[in-house]
Design goal:
Elements (H helix, E strand, L loop, with lengths): L4 H4 L2 H6 L3 E9 L9 H16 L2 H12 L3 E8 L2 H5 L6 H18 L3 E8 L6 H15 L4 E9 L3 E3 H17 L11 E5 L20 E8 L1 H9 L6 H30 L3 E8 L9 H8 L9 H19 L8 E2 L7 H8 L5 H7 L7 E7 L4 H18 L3 E8 L7 E3 L6 E3 L9 H4 L4 E2 L9
Parallel strand pairs: 1-2, 2-3, 3-4, 4-6, 7-8, 8-9, 10-11
Antiparallel strand pairs: 1-7, 4-5, 5-14, 6-11, 12-13
C-alpha cells in the first residue's frame, strides 16, 4: 500500500530536478459506438468520450494540487479508428470527419492530445485501414490535438512492406499539408513495429482491443532525477552505477503509482499500467543525453553511447518493476532529438548522426523520434528508414517507431521550431543513395524464425 509519506523524499526531485508525472492517459473503448451511419457514429463517439472523460482534467489538477506532484498532460487514447469506422466510412473524407469529431470532443474536455487515429496493418490492410491511412494528411492538417499511429510490423507477423511504402508517401503528404507550420503534422504521426496496447505517451497511444472498456494509464518521467543521482557516484564502478539508477527509478515509479491509484479511485476507472519512461523535455537538465554524458561519454553519439543507453534502459526497467506490479507501455529511455537539449547539442557538435541514432534504437524504448530531415527527402527514402527501424523491432522482439519530420522548404544546417514539449531541432542529413528498388518490391517481409514459439 502506498502512502503520502513515500512521496516526501521526492520533494527535492520535483522542485529542483524536473520530476513530473508526464501524463494521465484515459483509454476509452469505442467498439460499442460502431454504426453504419457516419453521423450517428460521430455522435456516439463524441458522447462516449465526453461522458467518460469530462472530469479527467479537473481530477488531474486536483491530485496535482493536493500532493504537490506536477501532472503535465492529461490525454485520451481510443480504439484504433480504422476498426471503429469501417462500417460507416466509404471514403477517406469520411474518416476525416471522425478525426474532427475527436478533435472537437478532446478540446471540449480540455485534454492536451487524443490518440488512436490509428490502424493495425502488420500483416495486411483492409479497405478501412487503407482509407484511414490515406486520410491522415488531411486529418492532421485540419485538427489540432489528434494524433495518429500505424503499426506496420511485428515479431509474430513480419513487416508489411506495402504499408511501409505507403507510409513513406503519407509522411511526405502530411509534411506538405502542414508546411505552413514547418510540417508540424508529422510530429503527430508515428509508425510502429510491435506497438503496445497500453502506451500512455503521444503520439503513439491507442486503446488496444485487449483492454477494458476504460482504463487509466500513467506515464512518469524523470531524466533530471536520474542525472542528479548519478552525479553523486562519479567515478564509481558499474555495479554502483546500476544500483543508483535502479533505486532512483523505484522512487520515481512509486510517485506514478500513487497518482495512478488516486486517479483511478476518483474517476471510477480501473488502473492499467505505469509507464516509467525517461522522456526528456527541452528544459535544461531534463535530458537523456545528459545522463549518457554523466555515465561517461562526451556527447550522445560518441563511442560507448549504445552500451551506456542499454545499461540505462535496463536498470530503469528493473527499478520500475520492483515498484509496481503493473509496469507496461514503453518504459525505458526515449531519445527524441527535438525534445532533448543534450541530443540537439550532440547533433550540432557533429557527434550524433541518423545512423548512430538508429543503432541506439536497438536498446532504447522506442526508435527514431522527432527527427527533422530535409523537406526534399524522397518518400522512398523515408520508407527505407521506416523499414530499417521496423526490422530492428521485429528481430529484437521490442517496440520500435519512426517519427520523422521532412520540413518542407528547409534543408541541412537550418533549424525548425515546434514549440512547447516538442521543442526545436536542427535538420539532419539523410543518406542520399537510393533504396527505390527495395521498397517498391511490395509484399511482406516474413516473421523471423524465433517468432514460432507455440
Amino acid at each position: 500500500m502506498i502512502n503520502v509519506n513515500e512521496v516526501v523524499e521526492t520533494n527535492e526531485m520535483i522542485e529542483k530536478e524536473n520530476l513530473d508525472v508526464r501524463t494521465i492517459t484515459l483509454g476509452i473503448s469505442l467498439l460499442d459506438c460502431i454504426s453504419s451511419d457516419l453521423d450517428q457514429l460521430c455522435k456516439n463517439i463524441y458522447d462516449k468520450i465526453y461522458d467518460t472523460a469530462k472530469d479527467l482534467v479537473s481530477t488531474g489538477n486536483q491530485i496535482s494540487r493536493e500532493f504537490g506532484i506536477p501532472i503535465v498532460n492529461k490525454r485520451i487514447s481510443v480504439t484504433p479508428i480504422a476498426l471503429v469506422g469501417g462500417a460507416a466510412c466509404k471514403t477517406s473524407s469520411d474518416f476525416v470527419q471522425i478525426a474532427r469529431t475527436l478533435d472537437d470532443v478532446a478540446k471540449k474536455v480540455g485534454v492536451n492530445f487524443i490518440g488512436g487515429y490509428s490502424a493495425l496493418v502488420s500483416k495486411g490492410m483492409t479497405e478501412a485501414d487503407r482509407l484511414l491511412i490515406e486520410s491522415i494528411p488531411e486529418a492532421l492538417a485540419t485538427t489540432d490535438v489528434v494524433c495518429s499511429s500505424i503499426n506496420v510490423g511485428s515479431t509474430k507477423t513480419g513487416i508489411n512492406m506495402d504499408a511501409v511504402r505507403l507510409m513513406g508517401t503519407i509522411v511526405k503528404k502530411t509534411a506538405e499539408a502542414t508546411k505552413e507550420n514547418d510540417s508540424l503534422g508529422c510530429a503527430k504521426l508515428v509508425i510502429f513495429c510491435n506497438a503496445p496496447d497500453d502506451n500512455p505517451f503521444m503520439a503513439g497511444a491507442f486503446h488496444g482491443v485487449t483492454e477494458s472498456d476504460k482504463i487509466i494509464n500513467v506515464g512518469v518521467s524523470g531524466p533530471g532525477v536520474v542525472k542528479t543521482a548519478l552525479e553523486s557516484v562519479r567515478g564509481e564502478n558499474f555495479e554502483v552505477l546500476c544500483e543508483t539508477i535502479k533505486k532512483t527509478a523505484f522512487k520515481v515509479t512509486r510517485v506514478g503509482q500513487l497518482v495512478a491509484q488516486e486517479a483511478s479511485k476518483r474517476l471510477g476507472v480501473p488502473f492499467g499500467i505505469i509507464d516509467l519512461s525517461l522522456a526528456p523535455t527541452p528544459a535544461i537538465g531534463d535530458s537523456v543525453a545528459d545522463i549518457l554524458h554523466e555515465i561517461g561519454v562526451e556527447h550522445a553519439g560518441a563511442p560507448g553511447t549504445t552500451a551506456a543507453l542499454a545499461l540505462l534502459n535496463d536498470q530503469v526497467k528493473k527499478g520500475g518493476v520492483m515498484a509496481s506490479s503493473y509496469v507496461g507501455g514503453l518504459s525505458g529511455a526515449f531519445i527524441p532529438v527535438s525534445e532533448d537539449q543534450g541530443m540537439i547539442n550532440a547533433v550540432n557538435a557533429g557527434c550524433l548522426t541518423l545512423e548512430k541514432l538508429e543503432a541506439m534504437t536497438c536498446v532504447c524504448s522506442v526508435g527514431l523520434d522527432m527527427i527533422a530531415v530535409p523537406g526534399d527527402t524522397k518518400d522512398t527514402t523515408i520508407a527505407g528508414i521506416i523499414a530499417d527501424e521496423m526490422a530492428i523491432g521485429m528481430i529484437n522482439q521490442k517496440t520500435t517507431a519512426v517519427r520523422l519530420i521532412p520540413v518542407i522548404g528547409k534543408g541541412v544546417g537550418e533549424t525548425v521550431e515546434f514549440g512547447g514539449l516538442l521543442g526545436y531541432a536542427p535538420i539532419m542529413p539523410v543518406n542520399q543513395f537510393s533504396c527505390d528498388n527495395f521498397v517498391n518490391r511490395g509484399g511482406r517481409i516474413p516473421a523471423p524464425v524465433h517468432s514460432f514459439k507455440n
